[in-house]
Amino acid sequence: MASEIEDGYAAARLFNQGYSYTYDDVIFLPHYIDFSTDQVSLSTRLTRRVPLYSPIISSPMDTVTESSMAAAMASIGGLGIIHSNLSPQLQAAMVCSVKSRRVPFLSSPSFLSPSHRISSLDDFDASSPYVLVTLSGSPRSKLIGYVSKSDWLNLDDDRKDLEVKSYMRTSNEIVVPWNRSLDQMEGFFKEKDLDLGVLVKSDMAAEEDEVVDVVMREDVERVKGYPKLGVGGTVGPDGGWRVGASIGTRETDKERLEHLVKAGVDVVVLDSSQGNSIYQIDMIKYVKRVYPELDVVGGNVVTAAQAENLIKAGVDGLRVGMGSGSICTTQEVCAVGRGQATAVYKVASIAAQNDVPVIADGGISNSGHIVKALVLGASTVMMGGFLAGSEEAPGSYEYQNGRRVKKYRGMGSLEAMTKGSDARYLGDTTKLKIAQGVVGAVSDKGSVLKFIPYTMQAVKQGFQDLGASTLQSAHDLLRKGVLRLEVRTGAAQVEGGVHGLVSYEKKAF
């Protein structure tokens, strides 16, 4: 009897009916379970040659990804793409900062020479209660001591006016090699009974030290208390975290690319809202010719025809999405784009034939959206708003109507365009600037190191319900028509969420 009843549609049939579907529009039907969630592996590839333990990428937006976010994403098996809305030198410095450590957080300690004086608490950076003393007063110099904020406050007033060398603590015991992991730092603090370690990179050839950062015991203990994904971090062949960066398609971006390559960037993303252009195709060919060992991601695209052009040009990965982000207004303003579920399926179908991984960029609001994006053919998901508002996102917290928030803005907003992102929309040479994004705020989410592991556990449970223990098995089941989908009516979408309650508290974990 059951064989006579057809449940749902195969993806090939559903997505060829002329409708533009979002993630919320479609639902997968459950399949057969014969494994536990612990047996689900989400290992994947960002590009042809960049493997990842977790299929999560932070978006190259100036309110989402800088050094702190990129380091945190790498530590949990994903990867961060540092935005290009800043000078090439600063962007390259951020890449270096991420690659110069194996701990998932950053601080910005102040540096002084032995002959300097601390005049006030302003000499201590807000992110670190320590001033580091090096021979030259810069990070690229031998560390000889340090001063803590508490030590300086406890000094007699007459001693506070002295040179720091007269009261600093020596640094003999606190120096730690730059590539120590979180577990190794925990062991270091227990063994030495110290509260502070300083990561130092030594260049034996140049006989020069570089002070990378300060690591505090309380930070290590805090992060060690977070849930673990059970995966290794995203480590490159140089022993540091892998990190990506975005560039544009203008002639000046070739100079930016040179800075990034010298900094050791692992992958570059050509950042454009509409990637099917002569400008991007020429840049792809340039990157592959001049830096053949560097993987390049093209996009954004939403159609098979767009994808095919970039694949022919030589891309190692494709970024999919146009107008699906929460702060993006491209579909409204320009009347172009596509529902993200349809876009991911269509582009992934052509990309799979050429062994090009796909990044589903935008439209991610919950773990269910991640499951849908990955099963529909994406190898990774790129998130902006999902990560904005976290501790690792750039910017400071403020309060709005009693809620702790951080700014989150689209790169197509006029505010972001004034910083240089108008080139992303091919509007840097026009006199009239037209916004394709907005400026908003998102609630404090805490640390990505805490909430992303819960999110990925939910994704694993989704894969279990679908009977897929890996991304590849999910893709195979979809293409063979084993996994079935249906379109949800508006009432079905309401029914699929919390409903019928006077009040409720919704906690993800």
Which strand order do you get reading across the main beta sheet? 4-5-13-14-15-16-17-18
Q: What sort of overall outline do the alpha carbons produce when their principal axes are compared?
A: globular
Task: Supply the helix-strand structural class.
Answer: alpha/beta
Helix content: 25-40%
Beta-strand residue percentage: 15-25%
Instruction: Determine the mean pLDDT.
Output: 90
Low-confidence stretches: none
The CA-CA distance between the termini, in Å, is 41 Å
Number of helices: 17
Structural summary, described in words:
The two termini are 41 Å apart. This protein has 17 helices and 22 strands. Helix 2 (67-75) packs parallel to helix 3 (88-99) and helix 3 (88-99) packs parallel to helix 8 (252-263). The protein is an alpha/beta fold and 509 residues long. The protein has an 8-stranded parallel β-barrel with strand order 4-5-13-14-15-16-17-18, surrounded by 7 helices. Strands 6-7-8-9 form a 4-stranded mixed β-sheet.
